[in-house]
Amino acid sequence: MALVEDIRVEAARGQTLSRRVWLEARRSPWFIIGAVLTVLLISAATLWPELSDINPTKINVRARYLPPVFLSGGSWDHLLGTDQLGRDIFMRCLVGLRVSLLVAISSVVLMFVVGCAVGLWSGFKSGWTDVVLMRLTDVQLSIPAIILAIAILGVSRPSVPTIILVLALAGWPIYARVMRAIALNERNREFVRAARVVGAGDLRIVLLLIAANVLPSVLFVAILDVARMMIFEAMLGFIGLGIQPPTPSFGSMIADGRKYMINAWWIASMPGAFLFLVLLGLNFIGTAFERARERVYGGMV
């Protein structure tokens, strides 16, 4: 009975620490600023295109090169102006934000699940399982992400599922390596040995004990990775391997607008500013969680 109680205490400890990290991060001004900024932008991207009658892909040559509303000649009908084809930049930025978040969040979830599963199982089982899985991880790490993207997207029409897959393939080995190191340390702890004594299987130990204790400590990395994947997706769009027209994306909008920087600088600058604000909000949230984790876990030493 004492062994079972020790296992329950250790599992509860992991949940308690996770809750403390969350509460600590919530009190940070960086978290508040980042959350407000991110929620406002996501809410606008979710609701505004549905409520507005402006079509982000509609071409109107009579309305080309209209400046933003805060410049002379600007109109409230086009808050951030129009591009070289007369399309509303504000609406295109909102739709581009939708696409970018869909790709980034989906790819991070996929790489997080795959990478953590491979790393935890590899570190826990050790032996030949660890050797095989880590060699596969090393092979993946040896391929630069941009080369992988060009190789896959260059021979097929880029689509949302394909881009998500490419980003996930580029990122999962990092999580695998981190989680393997943690699992190697956790597998010899007292509560794991106690679980073995009472008859718990390997999968049950990995999921309910080790994963429950260590996953919260790397969640802030996943938040920061959402921002990193948004940058990667924009980069692919900039070189023509991202979301294809007529669907707007930050990378393609910036690439199209660079030709008009002298006379219509807002065509490229406004999508760039939109992307910057989203990344700023996500990084503030990730920073708040990282500092909260350092305070909570550092206070235990």
Name of the CATH homologous superfamily: MetI-like
Name the poorly predicted regions: 1-7
Distance between the termini: 29 Å
Number of strands: 0
Category by helix and strand content = mainly alpha
| Beta-strand content estimate | under 5%
* Biggest beta sheet attributes: none
The CATH topology is MetI-like fold
Number of domains: 1
Average pLDDT works out at: 83
Provide a descriptive summary of the structure in words.
By secondary structure, the chain is an all-alpha fold. It has a single domain (2-54, 89-252, 265-298), classed as MetI-like (MetI-like fold, Orthogonal Bundle). It is built from 10 helices and no strands. The protein is elongated and about 75 Å long.
Salient structural properties:
single chain, 301 residues, mainly alpha, MetI-like fold, disordered N terminus
How would you concisely characterize the structure shown here?
With 301 residues, the chain is mainly alpha-helical.
